[in-house]
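wait is this the right file?? whatever heres the structure
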């Protein structure tokens, strides 16, 4: 399937239907859609969006687990120039409230109920009256769904006219990522960035490796949208959706669907290897396994290589539309364990300083990126967008690294305080702000500590208000109503006083050292 000239996401959907109409595109439970069937549903949903008043530049949000609904709505929304936004079922009410207010979607699709929680009713209570809501049931969207029926009065000519307006530099998706303020920022990723990044990944991973994959990842992450789904979709492969990370169920699904492509993290490897009697040589159906998100112990790789799959260590972030560096297949286990490789085609990666001066080989500096994969900017945040780039136009990743003599980049740590827990980004300031909403908490500091399974977890230091006593169990329960569970610190310490620097700021390094000692 030749898609080298594709610049819009819809180009890929149309090309798949035209060139290989009978091949399977997506699987969700009993639902199996061919490329032709997928294109028909995408067209019907897109007409329904038009009937609901959605136009180029509008935002359309989806709250759902990994599913056919997610992918159909993503493809349909972007095809008419609207911007798709994913919402994670693990979020809490105040998180949804902020995201809905910031993006101000014109239309919101939400799973009516999932895992015992009534999402549609919950969101309706949070949004203003200008937002339209449509419920999603357990049955994936089809030609008889409410949204498809709404579009029956729209003609093919109407649809073509809306699609003709879409430009490659138009934003296709908004993905939220937090920063030092603790409030999430919406990174806008253009059609060109999404498509060209996917095609660059197809070029090095190969179509055999991307023939099929299973996606249990949350739909609001570039991991699911880009690294898993778009890479497979652009290669003409099959995406199998599963609504949650359940190792037993996913094991059965693997045995049935025999996926060729796995996007993993050190946490995923640890969980796989923790299963009693696991023999990774039984996973020989994998052709390509890529992994990142944290340093991967070489001991894990000695086991994973038994699958016989081609392995690669990768690096990326929301602002780079996912993967932006990779180690070449056939690299040594040491190289894959210790480095994140070199730049993806269409991009440049340098180790620079604040002035944009590139560091010498072996010298540590900030990992900075320039190229087709870089975001267009942050939604409604021009100052944050300016701060995200160097004066000469390179994206500041906020991560530290250095180049080896062989050109591979070593990830050396995080310039920002963000840490990854089980593959999820956790931002201490956001957690600290939530902790300080507790009536008895005077101050809070969260630092990352090592964890055998999740790589890093939060350790919270708390200072009680005068005359109050803090029970960590009570504070933990308080947080469960405010932030996603993976952000909640795993260990706690209540102090009588915090150490301070001469400038009056809390000495976080001293607190981190206290945990490490």
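ok assuming it is, sequence goes like this
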């Amino acid at each position: 399937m030749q898609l080298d000239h594709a610049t819009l996401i819809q180009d890929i959907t149309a090309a798949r239907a035209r060139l290989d109409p009978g091949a399977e595109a997506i699987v969700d439970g009993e639902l199996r859609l061919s490329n032709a069937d997928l294109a028909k549903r995408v067209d019907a949903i897109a007409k329904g969006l038009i009937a609901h008043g959605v136009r180029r530049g509008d935002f359309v949000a989806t709250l759902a687990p990994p599913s056919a609904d997610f992918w159909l709505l993503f493809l349909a929304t972007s095809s008419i120039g609207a911007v798709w936004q994913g919402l994670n079922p693990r979020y809490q009410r105040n998180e949804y409230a902020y995201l809905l207010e910031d993006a101000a979607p014109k239309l919101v699709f939400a799973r009516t109920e999932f895992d015992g929680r009534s999402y549609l009713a919950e969101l309706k209570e949070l949004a203003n009256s200008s937002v339209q809501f449509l419920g999603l049931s357990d049955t994936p969207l089809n030609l008889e769904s409410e949204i498809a029926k709404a579009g029956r009065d729209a003609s093919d000519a109407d649809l073509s006219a809306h699609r003709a307006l879409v430009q490659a530099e138009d934003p296709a998706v908004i993905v939220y990522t937090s920063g030092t303020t603790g409030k999430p920022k919406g990174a806008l990723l253009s059609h060109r960035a999404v498509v060209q990044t996917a095609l660059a990944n197809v070029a090095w991973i190969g179509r055999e490796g991307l023939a099929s994959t299973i996606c249990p990842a949350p739909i609001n992450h570039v991991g699911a949208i880009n690294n898993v789904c778009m890479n497979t979709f652009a290669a003409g492969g099959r995406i199998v959706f599963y609504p949650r990370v359940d190792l037993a169920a996913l094991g059965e699904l693997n045995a049935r669907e025999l996926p060729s492509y796995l996007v993993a993290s050190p946490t995923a490897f640890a969980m796989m290897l923790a299963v009693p009697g696991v023999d990774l040589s039984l996973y020989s159906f994998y052709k390509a396994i890529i992994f990142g998100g944290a340093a991967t112990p070489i001991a894990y790789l000695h086991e994973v290589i038994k699958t016989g799959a081609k392995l690669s260590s990768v690096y990326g972030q929301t602002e780079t539309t996912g993967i932006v560096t990779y180690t070449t297949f056939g690299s040594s286990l040491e190289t894959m364990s210790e480095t994140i490789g070199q730049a993806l085609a269409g991009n440049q990666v340098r180790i620079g300083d604040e002035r944009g001066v590139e560091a010498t080989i072996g010298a540590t500096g900030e990992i900075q990126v320039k190229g087709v994969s870089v975001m267009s900017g942050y939604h409604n945040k021009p100052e944050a967008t300016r701060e995200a780039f160097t004066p000469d136009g390179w994206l500041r990743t906020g991560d530290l690294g250095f180049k080896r003599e062989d050109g591979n980049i070593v990830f050396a740590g995080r310039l920002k305080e963000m840490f990854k827990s089980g593959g999820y980004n956790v931002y201490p300031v956001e957690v600290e702000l939530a902790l300080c909403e507790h009536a008895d908490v005077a101050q809070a500091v969260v630092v990352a500590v090592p964890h055998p399974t999740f790589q890093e977890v939060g350790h919270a230091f708390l200072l009680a208000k005068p005359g109050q006593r803090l029970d960590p169990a009570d504070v933990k329960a308080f947080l469960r109503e405010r932030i996603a569970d993976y952000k909640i610190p795993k260990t706690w310490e209540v102090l009588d006083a915090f150490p301070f620097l001469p400038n009056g700021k809390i000495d976080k390094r001293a607190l981190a050292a206290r945990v490490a000692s």
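The longest strand covers residues 441-451. so i think its the right one actually
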